[in-house]
Design a protein that fits this description.
The complex is a heterodimer of chains A (about 80) and B (about 375). Chain A has about 80 residues and is α+β, with helices and mostly antiparallel strands. Chain A has one domain (about 5-70): Alpha-Beta Plaits (2-Layer Sandwich), CATH 3.30.70. Chain A has helices at about 10-25, 55-60, and strands at about 5-10, 30-35, 45-50, 70. Chain B folds into 2 domains: about 5-10 and about 270-380, Alpha-Beta Complex (Aspartate Aminotransferase, domain 1); about 20-270, Type I PLP-dependent aspartate aminotransferase-like (Major domain) (Aspartate Aminotransferase, domain 2, 3-Layer(aba) Sandwich). In chain B, helix 2 packs across helix 7 and helix 3 (about 75-85) packs parallel to helix 4 (about 100-110). The two termini of chain B are about 30 Å apart. Classes of the chains: A alpha+beta (about 80), B alpha/beta (about 375).
Chain lengths: ~80, ~375
């Protein structure tokens, strides 16, 4: 599977809000369960292509709420 | 015999057709648990929950959907604010038309209050506010539209007075939401409490509160603690919104129905709905006030009350339903303070509340029925 970036949020509502906003900006993304290695939450995360990282980062700076971070699913290493 | 439903202040009926269709569709096709799990049914439910949150925010001029907190009804929303925001020793101002959803929690937590004097219909006199403010006054509580006589309070002016005096404003929009324009920021509201099953045409079991931008939500103690699907490793309640105040599974099917009701309002237009209802209530008011022996209590909204000379309210309501199929509500309407203000305590009134689904023919029948009851009572006397 190709590498994907994982955007982590505090609550699922944030994920739905981000998904909607990214799609409106033409950035393809999808919602999936959070990888267990990252969180014990029963929530969801937003996955998107690595080449959109800069664009997504810029977008998240405009949000009225904080995100938990963005990591690569290849390494699952924090990049925040 | 046709039935004529005029108890829309208790709950609206009928709902627009799209509402039961949406609820049924939710149960049949995407009945997952929103915010719990990442499979497609949970995601579909979560997406709808976000959609109704966003739509609710939009209706009330709130630019952050996560400051919309859903509760089971407006009573729970009011309890959340009063018990989470106020502290022993605080003092509040209330309108003379408040509902027990406000007065009982205040009594339960022992909060002192002063009633802002009003005119004959209970419309507050703005000029009276400054003299009532004490050092420990923190909040003004206003029933935007009375559930007894429909009087509409000047929310924006009261909000400005609150801000000018360093106070917060709680607006009880149970009756007004869905036909009056309400703007969280422009109307200077700090806590906008609403119910979903009246003018917003959702099912019962829906409602909530919107926090204005001045409110520091970390200073408000949640009413409930529990599972949120977030920070699950901790016993501490999350601090972020909406999870700080929304524990446990949401009333997904109810909220989907509320979403359908909100969409219907958007399609019809608030103004169109308001004008339709206004025409009907004006017709009813004019008709009832023309009957000698009928005392009418009306302050301008979608609700009015009457008493009929020499006729017991309960007997009148029974006759209205048995002979003409007209459904009303009698008693104190959970608002003894409002009835004391209007001079109708403790007997209460017969209340009529219209919706845009009523017809002019139904109103004509209701006026005729009240005239007949009044004339019959006069003859018996």
């Amino acid at each position: 599977m190709p590498e994907e970036m994982i955007l982590l949020v505090h609550t699922s509502g944030h994920a739905f809000s981000i998904e909607k906003a990214l799609k409106k900006r033409g950035i393809s993304c999808r919602l999936t369960p959070i990888p267990r290695k990252v969180s014990s939450d029963c929530g969801i995360c937003v996955r998107f292509a690595p080449e959109k990282l800069a664009e997504v980062r810029t977008f998240t700076e405009t949000l009225p709420f904080e995100i938990q971070g963005i990591i690569s699913d290849d390494s699952l290493s924090a990049e925040k | 015999m046709n039935q004529i439903y005029l108890d829309n202040a208790a709950t609206s009926w009928p709902k627009p057709e799209c509402v039961p269709v949406a609820v049924s569709d939710a149960i049949m096709h995407y009945g997952g648990n929103p915010g719990r799990g990442g499979h497609k049914l949970a995601l579909a439910a979560g997406e709808l929950l976000y959609d109704v949150r966003e739509r609710t925010a939009g209706l009330f001029g709130c630019n952050d959907p996560f400051r919309v907190i859903f509760t089971q009804n407006i009573t729970m929303a009011v309890n959340l604010v009063l018990k989470g925001f106020l502290h022993p020793g605080d003092h509040v101002l209330v309108s003379p038309m408040e509902h027990n959803a406000i007065m009982r929690p205040l009594a339960a937590i022992g909060i002192a209050y002063s009633i802002i004097p009003g005119d004959i219909n209970g419309k507050v006199k703005l000029s009276e506010i400054p003299a009532l403010i004490r050092k420990n006054t923190r909040l003004i509580i206003i029933c935007h539209e009375s559930n007894v006589n429909g009087v509409i309070q000047p929310l924006r002016e009261i909000g400005q007075a609150a801000r000018g005096n360093g106070l917060f404003l709680l607006a009880d929009c149970a009756q007004s939401a869905g036909h009056l324009p309400i703007d969280l920021e422009k109307d200077c509201i700090d806590f906008l409490c609403f119910t979903g099953h009246k003018g917003l045409f959702g099912p019962t079991g829906t409602g909530g509160v919107l926090f204005g931008s001045r409110v520091d939500v970390q200073q408000i103690t949640p009413l409930l603690q529990g599972g949120t699907g977030s920070l699950s490793e901790s016993f501490d309640q999350p601090s972020f919104l909406p999870d700080r105040f929304e524990s446990g599974t949401q009333n997904m099917c109810g909220l989907v129905g509320l979403n359908a009701g909100l969409k219907w309002i958007e399609e019809q237009g608030l103004q169109t709905i308001a004008e339709r209802s206004k025409d009907l209530i004006t017709q009813l008011h004019e008709g009832l006030t023309s009957i000698p022996g009928v005392q009418c209590y009306y302050g301008g909204g979608q609700v009015l009350s009457i008493t009929i000379d020499h006729v017991d309210n309960g007997s009148a309501a029974a006759e209205l339903e048995e002979r003409w199929g007209i459904m009303t509500r009698i008693g104190l309407h959970c608002a003894p303070l409002a009835h004391k203000t209007l001079g109708t305590f403790p007997n209460g009134t017969i209340r009529f509340a219209v919706s845009p689904f009523n017809t002019t023919e139904e109103i004509e029948t209701t006026i005729r029925a009240c005239r007949t009851l009044t004339e019959e009572a006069c003859r018996k006397k």
